[in-house]
Specification:
The complex is a heterotrimer. By secondary structure, chain A is mainly alpha-helical. In chain A, 58% of the residues lie in helices and 0% in strands. In chain C, the strands form 2 sheets. In chain C, strands 2, 3, 4, 5, 6 and 7 form a 6-stranded antiparallel beta sheet that branches. Chain C has a 4-stranded antiparallel beta sheet with strand order 1-10-9-8, covered by helices on one side.
């Protein structure tokens, strides 16, 4: 069903492209692609185009799916978006230009990775901060050995704690 | 009392709980349109009647663009609302329908049965829907005389909503 | 009738928790034997009532009693029996009831299995379990009551469970396994709280705590894997892990549970890290509540999202209470957990353990922040952002490489301070294996640095794991035992050791399999008319015909695809395109051909009116090794639970017998 529709569309578009007199109608998407300016690079095609389309489609979110990228989603919208991505890339637009264009209409939501700018930096830098902070903490602790009080505090009964300490020592010695 | 644990714990837990509490009432699926307040993306599409419609030509009048399909129940429900609106504001507001992921034949059959309220434009590869950030049907865009999108409505339109928005757009310069 | 009985059972369960909680704490504080006895009885009663409520619900489901609201919402006359039975956990209310059941069973398990010793610990433990049980019974009895009577008129049929949940047999075992893991984390949490209240965490209580941490961890590992496998086999997008919020929700406590287990090893060996073990165990439980909140409240966009329900705020409140109470308890009591003085060298096994835990905690933090960042960003900036697979993969790769590195050098390093020469020897000795791994990867054509590094580290780690695991066996063999006897005795004397190394082996296999399967995936999309073929990765796929299968609850369009691999006929695969009367978009079920080296994955994307189909084909290498690797991990975790046959006990037994 959809393939008939798409074939019809392709035929119609091809015919439209072939008709010189109809020149007043600009290609439908191009007028809006101007929002991100002129293509950054040269036009590409073939397997190179396929590969980069997969790559870019892989970091764009399908708006009607649960967290899927438009590369993985079978929905009609995702397929249409992927086709437009491919067309833009074939004209030479760069990945960031393509993403910017879609962000115009869908918002930042469309990027599966948040732009590393402003507040979003938190999600990129916080893990690093935790890792470095942890390393620092460990380094400091290893330099100063922890001197613990060997008197356990109030609540425990003395026999139980003695037994436990004893058990621990024995266990440590037995375990090789 | 180990103060370190208390402070670290409080520092981690308090923002966490606050953010989680704030998230209530927000629908994670509802995406605000970044287009509101910006110039509406131009397009040139052919209607089912063969006529070419270009958005830029309609500058100077408020425009209502409704993306719809026959498989969408709310679209069918709001059809009479759009019909009444188109009739009431005939001449002062342009009503445009864009076919969203549907077949022209089905749309035509529907129109033949229920009547039209404006041209039904064929959006071939879905590029116009994408340019407008459409992700479901129905979605309606209200564009003022200067070509700026003042509102995006998702879901079936309510007659009061339609009337108040259009009156507002007609009054303002 | 069932409505009333079921509600009554739940109310009784609620009452036992309301009584048992203060009773348990009182019995623990006053060391009352009678108090403990009654607490135990309450625990068994709680379990009994939960079992009763569950059985009543199952009865209602099977007999299609639509006067019960839950049955009216997920039941259907057209649904096959086995799916009706498992629809108990297919929707929100039923799954909360299931949670209560599992909690009841665990509470009873603790009561029955922890008989000797630790009376006051046990009383406190049960008290805490009752508090948790109180919350969940309250949910089941009130806001999320599946037994609520259906408002009149009582329907004669229902919509049936979510179609996605009817597609595959994994739906039957994935949720129970996950729940056993998730809910089971309440037990070590309760035990940790008991240790804090008691003011002590000695070796005697550490052992049961560790065992009761291992049990849910093994279930959780299995449950996560089954979830990934289900996602792969059913959802049709060709992958097994998408970092969806609900996947992350199950992953987070798993990570901290692993960290806690490693911390416990150090505690047992050196008497240090007591506080960290307790903290990590408590965080694990808190993450299960957080995870449940995230997926059930509807605040994040997820595959599993139940819609925004009234229980969201309740979960958040419970989470808040648990968090605040945990912090207060920790700050008051943590200093009572006395650790031995530690003089650890950085480059030692302890150092490796600490670094390992740091990496696991960083990983947990990263996944957590990534999952809730959309919420934070919206609150701060008012804009919706997405944090998806590319982000998580980018963050996970270096962390996982670090973990793989530690799996290699950790067991190679000796405990405590060692002289430089010994250290060098220990670290250099496995290097050849790493180089071999690297060589194999290069020969196989790998060029990406991450894949090559993975190969090197995996080779190194594999050598270390096998070497260390078999070291005692080699020593025994030198003393004259046969090889078989040596290995057997090594296992029997220290099953925990064997289990642990087996888990490491599983991790290595899984990491390598994930690395290979994500790098070398091949993809193809083609529109085929009957008789047409497409080629991918050595396969020739011919679309033969399209059949329609009518089942009571769905209509399926089945496409028969003829498979030829390297010229050989390999039969047919039949991906389906299912149309459910209750859904607008049809759902495709993929057909997968699994071999030891790769998977062929076929999905139907669409079916044209002209009989042409849109076919998507994916060839992914080594996928089955991801499942096998995790299964090895699960086996290892289970083996860790086997109690060792110690020499002393055996000799004592013999002495006793001799004297008898």
């Amino acid at each position: 069903m959809r393939s008939i529709y798409l074939t019809l569309v392709v035929v119609v578009l091809s015919l439209a492209a072939l008709m010189p007199a109809a020149g007043q109608e600009a290609p439908l998407g191009a007028a809006n692609w101007d929002l991100v300016g002129q293509p950054d690079g040269p036009p590409i095609s073939g397997t190179e185009l396929d590969l980069i389309t997969e790559e870019v489609a892989g970091i764009m979110r399908c708006p009607v799916c649960q967290g899927l990228s438009i590369a993985d989603s079978p929905t009609a919208l995702a397929i249409a978006m992927k086709a437009e991505v491919k067309e833009m890339l074939s004209k030479g637009y760069s990945e960031s230009q393509v993403l910017d264009y879609f962000e115009q209409s869908y918002g930042e939501f469309i990027r599966l990775e948040p732009k590393a700018r402003g507040f979003n930096l938190f999600v990129w830098l916080a893990p690093l901060a935790v890792l470095l902070g942890g390393l620092l903490f460990l380094a400091m602790r290893m330099k100063k050995p922890v001197v613990a009080e060997l008197e356990p505090t109030a609540t425990s009964s003395s026999t139980e704690s003695e037994l436990d300490t004893y058990r621990e020592r024995v266990r440590r010695e037995v375990a090789s | 009392m180990n103060r370190k644990v208390l402070i670290v714990g409080a520092l981690i837990v308090t923002p966490l709980l606050i953010f989680l509490a704030l998230s209530f009432g927000k629908d994670p699926r509802a995406i605000d349109s970044p287009l509101v307040g910006r110039t509406a993306p131009d397009f040139a599409l052919r209607g089912l009647d063969g006529e070419m419609v270009r958005l830029a030509d309609l500058r100077g009048k408020p425009v209502v663009i409704n993306f719809w399909a026959t498989w969408c129940q709310p679209c069918i429900a709001e059809h009479p609302v759009l019909q009444a609106g188109a009739k009431q504001y005939e001449g002062s507001v342009e009503f445009l329908g864009v076919i969203y992921q549907d077949e022209p034949e089905k749309i035509q059959a529907f129109i033949d049965r229920r009547g039209a309220w404006g041209p039904s434009l064929v959006d071939d590869a879905g590029t116009v829907a994408i340019a407008y950030g459409v992700y479901g049907a129905p979605e309606t865009f209200f564009i003022d005389r200067n070509g700026v999108i003042v509102r995006k409505a998702t879901g079936a339109l309510h007659p009061n909503e339609l009337a108040s928005l259009l009156n507002g757009m007609l009054q303002s310069g | 009738m069932i409505s009333q009985l079921g509600s009554a059972a739940v109310l009784l369960a609620l009452m036992t928790c309301a009584i048992g909680a203060p009773l348990g704490y009182f019995a623990g504080a006053s060391r009352s034997a009678a108090g403990l006895q009654w607490t135990r009885r309450m625990a068994l009663a709680f379990a009994l009532f939960m079992v009763l409520a569950t059985l009543l619900m199952e009865y209602a489901l099977i007999t299609h009693d639509f006067s019960v609201s839950y049955v009216a919402s997920v039941g259907s006359l057209a649904t096959p029996l086995h799916i009706t039975i498992v629809s108990l956990w297919s929707s929100l209310e039923g799954s909360i009831l299931f949670w209560g059941l599992v909690l009841g069973l665990f509470t009873a398990g603790v009561t029955l299995l922890q008989r000797r010793g630790h009376e006051d610990y046990l009383a406190y433990t049960l008290g805490t379990l009752f508090v948790i049980g109180l919350f969940f019974s309250f949910l089941i009895a009130g806001p999320a009551n599946p037994f609520r009577p259906t408002p009149l008129p009582i329907p004669t049929d229902g919509p049936g469970p979510n179609p996605l949940l009817q597609n595959h047999i994994l739906m039957i075992i994935h949720p129970p396994m996950l729940y056993l893991g998730y809910v089971g984390m309440s037990v070590p949490f309760a035990m940790a709280v008991a240790a804090l209240l008691r003011g002590q965490l000695g070796a005697s209580w550490l052992r049961p705590l560790r065992n009761w941490l291992l049990v849910p961890t093994s279930f959780l590992t299995l449950g996560i894997m089954l979830g990934g496998w289900w996602s792969y086999e059913v959802l049709g997008w060709g992958g097994y892990w998408a970092w969806d919020p609900v996947e992350n929700a199950s992953f987070l406590p798993w990570l901290t549970a692993l960290a806690a287990l490693h911390s416990a090893v150090v505690q047992q060996r050196r008497g240090t890290l007591k506080a960290w073990t307790v903290i990590l165990v408590m965080v694990t439980f808190l993450l299960t509540i957080l995870g449940t909140f995230l997926t059930r409240s509807g605040v994040v966009n997820s595959v599993h999202s139940f819609t925004q329900s009234p229980i969201g705020p309740l979960f958040l409140t419970f989470l808040g209470i648990c968090l605040v109470a945990s912090i207060i308890l920790l700050s008051l009591r943590i200093d009572t957990l006395v650790s031995e003085p530690s003089e650890d060298a950085v480059v030692s096994r302890e150092g490796a353990f600490l670094l390992n835990n740091l990496l696991l905690v960083t990983f947990t933090f990263t996944v957590l922040v990534g999952t809730i960042f959309p919420i934070i960003a919206e609150a701060v900036r008012g804009v919706k952002v997405s944090v998806g697979e590319p982000y998580f993969n980018r963050m996970a790769v270096p962390i996982c490489l670090g973990l793989l590195f530690l799996i290699g050098i950790g067991p190679a390093l000796p405990w405590g301070r060692a002289d430089k020469r010994a250290l060098q020897r220990a670290l250099v000795w496995p290097l050849p294996a790493g180089i071999v791994g690297l060589g194999i990867a290069l020969l196989a054509g790998a060029r990406s640095w991450s894949l090559l590094l993975t190969a090197f580290l995996a080779g190194y780690a594999l050598w270390v794991t096998l070497d260390q695991a078999l070291r005692p066996a080699r020593l025994r063999a030198k003393k004259g035992e046969s090889a078989g006897q040596a290995v057997l005795q090594t296992f029997v004397r220290a099953p925990r050791r064997t289990g642990a190394y087996l888990v490491h082996l599983g991790v290595i296999v899984t990491f390598v399999a994930i690395a290979i399967s994500s790098t070398y995936k091949e993809n193809l999309e083609a529109t085929l008319a009957p008789g047409q073929s497409a080629a991918l990765g050595g396969y020739n796929l011919t679309f033969k015909q399209l059949d329609i299968e009518q089942e009571p609850h769905l209509t399926a369009q089945k496409a028969t695809i003829q498979i030829e691999h390297d010229g050989k006929d390999e039969g047919t695969l039949q991906p389906r395109f299912n149309h459910y009367p209750t859904q607008r978009e049809p759902i495709g079920t993929p057909a997968v051909r699994t071999t030891l080296t790769h998977d062929l994955y076929l999905t139907v994307m669409n079916v044209g009116e002209d009989g042409r189909i849109g076919l998507r084909a994916i060839v992914t290498p080594a996928v089955v090794w991801v499942w096998l690797g995790v299964l090895i991990m699960v086996a290892g975790t289970v083996i860790c639970l086997i109690p060792p046959r110690s020499v002393a006990v055996a000799e004592k037994a013999r002495t006793v017998e001799a004297n008898a």
